[in-house]
Design brief:
single chain, Metal Transport, Frataxin, Chain A, three-stranded antiparallel sheet, 3 strands
């Protein structure tokens, strides 16, 4: 699957909030999201426009691994 190259942090955060992730805090331009499923998972997202493909890929891979699904 090819990742889109025009996702900004607000779109990424909104998508994850629709999947039961909640904003826990923001420090500088980094936003911490967390979810209580299969244990607590925290994701820190840089508030950049757009997110680099490597960052997007790493965050999605981390979430997929935690939930036991494919990216």
């Amino acid at each position: 699957m090819k990742l889109p190259s025009n996702i900004d942090a607000s779109g990424f955060i909104n998508a994850f909030q629709n999947s039961d992730y909640r904003i826990r805090r923001q420090t500088g331009n980094h936003v911490r999201l967390s979810k209580q499923q299969n244990g607590q998972q925290n994701i820190t997202v840089p508030n950049h426009d757009p997110l680099t493909i490597g960052t997007l890929n790493a965050k999605l891979a981390n979430v997929a691994h935690h939930l036991g699904v494919t990216k």
